[in-house]
Amino acid sequence: MRTQVAIIGAGPSGLLLGQLLHKAGIDAVILERQTGDYVLGRIRAGVLEQVTIDLLDEAGVGQRMHQEGLVHGGFDMLFKGERHRIDMNKLTGGKNVMVYGQTEVTRDLMDARATAGLTTIYEAANVAVHDFDSAKPRVTYEKDGKQHEITCDFIAGCDGFHGVCRASAPRSAIKEFEKVYPFGWLGVLSDTPPVHEELIYVNSPRGFALCSQRSETRSRYYLQVPLTDKVEQWSDQAFWDELKLRLDPEARAKLVTGPSIEKSIAPLRSFVTEPLRFGRMFLAGDAGHIVPPTGAKGLNLAATDVKYLSNAIIEFYQDKSESGIDSYSERCLKRIWRAERFSWWFTSLMHNFPENGAIGQKLQEAELDYIIHSEAGARSVAENYVGLPLDFGH
Ligand code: RFL
Ligand code: PHB
Fold first, then answer.
1. Which of ligand 1's atoms lies nearest the C-alpha of 39?
2. What is the rounded distance in angstroms from the CA atom of residue 147 to the CA atom of residue 141?
3. 5-177+268-386: CATH architecture
4. Chain segment 149-206, per-residue pLDDT in tens
5. Of the bound ligands, which one is closest to the alpha carbon of residue 342?
6. Which sequence spans correspond to the domains of the chain?
7. What is the residue with the minimal CA distance to atom 2 of ligand 2?
């Protein structure tokens, strides 16, 4: 088989790239290790920045998001038992975020791809990338017990943190920066009304908690837990009991509990690969970087990587120019490091680090107190949370 761009991974990065290239008349094939249902079953991100919303519109898949997504102009920070609102909309001159699940974004992109009759090969085993140092890269894979080969002009590594593309880059050409946090997030999805109309980020001496949502009838909650905890140890009752202990009295009284429809533990990590280009192979999304989820930046960063990458590839074919692909890595990394910085900072501010002792908790509370009382402090949080403009710093 021959295509212009072989995309590895049918998560949000790969699907969005496929859609943007299709809109520009560029042919792409997507190879995915899992089934479509498996990809849709992964409950992950919930908050979209304006740049992501705009991109989904540009890709022609924004209709349901605008109907069903919830626009949020602020969120609460809870510390020392009291809640304080960060009015993002006011602090950023009118910017908001949209609460719309990654599952729904993925579903919309999958539907658009199916409607356009585009090729996604699910359950592709042993995907391997070859010759990306030349002008004729190849991808091989197995499907139904047979070996297949795709020749292409470019390979897009949209295959997440555990993918094959980054792992295939020459070790001498790659630099990796990593920080692993000493805790994880235990997440529960439940068909119960959210405890509050906006998100609540909680700093408590018992550990971080987050009250999020997917709709007016579906809630998503998270608890900071030790990395050694196993999800089987956490009954629904134990989860709700612990969440209540981390909330303020009003939220505790209002919280509606119910059976979990999904429960999982995710480790927290900051990770960046440099560069993001290896000849004719590019990394985008979680394949190139990971942020801890506290700042809600992972999916949004994936979307901006894909915007830069699709622009670069379109420029290559339409204008016969390599300047976009030459600057891809550097442009992306600037935005990535800004989001890494914010996500690491917000994670450090909100979580309990037992090794920092009682003074660690006091210093966090003093910083939170400063943020809510200083317009400059609150604005800094707000402008990062809604997402820095694409041309920031230029
Ligand atoms: P994905 O979603 O991991 O998709 C990669 C795809 O590649 C496939 N794959 C392969 N296919 C073929 N051959 C191989 N060898 C392959 N290896 C892997 C995989 O099966 C998969 O389908 O990466 P992508 O597309 O870059 O998307 C990134 C986002 O998923 C991720 O950044 C976000 O979910 C992060 N995140 C959040 N981001 C936000 O912007 N806002 C949030 O509110 C937010 N909350 C979260 C999050 C991530 C979380 N977890 C579980 C890590 C909350 C959580 C709990
Ligand atoms: C979510 O709803 O899954 C979510 C929201 C905000 C975050 C992380 C996750 O910061």
1. 22
2. 6
3. 3-Layer(bba) Sandwich (3.50)
4. 999 999 999 999 999 999 999 999 999 999 999 999 999 999 999 999 999 999 999 9
5. 2
6. 5-177+268-386
7. 46
